[in-house]
Amino acid sequence: MTVEVGKEAPNFTLKDQDGKDVTLANYRGKNVVLYFYPKDMTPGCTTQACDFRDNYEAFADHDTVILGVSPDPIERHTKFIEKHLLPFTLLADEEQEVANLYEVWKLKKNFGREYYGIERSTFIIDKEGIVRSAERKVRVKGHIDATLQFVKENLA
């Protein structure tokens, strides 16, 4: 299944930082920023999460929830949230099922080493569950501002 703008977002259920099931379809009626990131507590991922945190109210003002997904376990998500006071939900995709569903689990190369990991990506889903934006190979700098601008201009 390919995730495409204009098509319904693939549904899934994952555990959140509290061990509770979170199902994407349960957010119908709200806009969703679904972002995939490689790893809790790393510099780029921390910057991205803190940028979302700092703009959390602005997203909420536009009826938009933020869901972060990484392959980290629940316990690591809990520590990440506590350390950086993150007000949004993080989902544990330890088996990379949802990362594969959204086609963000990719072969990566770093310093001559090949490994599989998350390709930083953001999907903006409207209140009807339709993908309105799919951004892959995201650069952290300026990304949250651009995401918020998209929500304001297209999902208000």
Please, could you describe this protein's structure?
A hairpin with a 2-residue loop joins strand 6 and strand 7. The chain has 156 residues and is of the alpha+beta class. The protein has a single domain, classed as Glutaredoxin (3-Layer(aba) Sandwich). The protein is built from 5 helices and 9 strands; from the N terminus they run E-E-E-H-H-E-H-E-H-E-E-E-E-H. It has a 7-stranded mixed β-sheet.
Structural class per helix/strand content?
alpha+beta
> What is Rg?
15 Å
Series of secondary-structure elements, N-terminal to C-terminal: EEEHHEHEHEEEEH
- The averaged pLDDT comes out at 95
| Count of domains | 1
Strand content: 25-35%
Q: How large is the count of helical segments? A: 5
State the share of residues found in helices, binned by percent. Answer: 25-40%
CATH first level: Alpha Beta
- What is the total tally of β strands? 9
Per CATH, which architecture? 3-Layer(aba) Sandwich
**CATH-level-4 superfamily name:** Glutaredoxin
Biggest sheet strand line-up: 2-1-5-4-3-8-9
Major β-sheet annotation: 7 strands, mixed
Show unreliable segments: none
Q: Report how far apart the termini are.
A: 29 Å
CATH topology: Glutaredoxin
Q: What would the principal axes of the Cα set say about the shape? A: globular
